[in-house]
Amino acid sequence: DIQMTQSPSTLSASVGDRVTITCRASQSISNWLAWYQQKPGKAPNLLIYKASSLESGVPSRFSGSGSETEFTLTISSLQPEDFATYFCQHYNSYPFTFGGGTKVEIK
Amino acid sequence: QVQLQESGPGLLKPSETLSLTCTVSGGSISTYYWSWIRQPPGKTLEWIGYIYYIGSTNYNPSLKSRVTISVDRSKNQFSLKLSSVTPADTAVYFCARVGYDTGGWAYYFDSWGQGTLVTVSS
After folding, report:
1. Quick one: chain A helix, strand, coil %, rounded to 5?
2. Predicted pLDDT at B31
3. What is the pLDDT of residue B88?
4. Mean of the per-residue pLDDT values for chain B?
5. What confidence score (pLDDT) does residue B53 get?
6. Which of A68, A95, A104, B85 is the most exposed place for a label (fewest CB within 10 A)?
7. B60 and A32: CB-CB below 8 Å?
8. Which of A91, A92, A93, A103 to mutate: most B Cβ within 10 Å?
9. Pick from A50, A91, A100: which is nearest to B44 by CB?
10. How far apart are the first and last CA of chain A?
């Protein structure tokens, strides 16, 4: 199985900050990577697919980049509603696996 | 906009079979791939498997010997069965729709149910 490692596991930031989350794959996954946002007690919500494509309806302050084994999710200016946990997921091969999550907390 | 809703028992005893159903509304179950994903309390997500509307399936090898996913197009539903459950199977179970982009099927998940907590305890 391909292992997905996210860093940091927790991030403290303030409203207006630029935030970057990293996801590393244990082997090349080309650009077959998605990012999700999850709030407590809710289902994940798709933000980014194919590493850098913004899902319809997702604010443009979210962006994704990277390829092969290293990927980043950037929030250009953190908003109050962005405090949540973020997961990456590869879909390069079976089984699809998720990263351990990055919790973005209020500083 | 498509909506998904999980239903099924929330409490099981060890060795029993978990049975959940996902009802799809606001769109047809035909044409798409549909998936089950679970999340133990406080942990990350685990892909369980998917089914295509015509019935073809693919399962996570870690669960393959115990999992069956089926589809009922007449009811716009798909279902999950997980046999011989243990406390390690305690999790929130989500149903989700597989995405499709310009290049074809892309196995990210673009619509999710709200999730249902299944607890396995004696």
Report:
1. 5, 50, 50
2. 86
3. 98
4. 96
5. 92
6. A68
7. no
8. A91
9. A100
10. 35
What would the pLDDT profile of B51-106 be if each residue is shown by its tens digit?
999 999 999 999 999 999 999 999 999 999 999 999 999 999 999 999 988 878 88
Closest Cβ–Cβ partner in B44, B58, B114 for A101: B44
Strands (E), chain B: 3-7, 11-12, 18-25, 33-39, 46-52, 57-59, 67-72, 77-82, 91-101, 104-112, 116-120
Are B95 and B22 in contact, with CB atoms under 8 Å apart?
A: yes
**At B73, phi and psi to the nearest 5?**
-65, -30
* Residue of chain B whose Cα is closest to the Cα of A55: B110
Mean pLDDT in residue range B31-48? 96
Tokens of A54: 């913004």
The HSE-up count of residue A3 (CA atoms within 13 Å, CB side) is 2
Chain A within 8 Å of B62 (Cβ-Cβ)? yes
For chain A, the average pLDDT equals 97
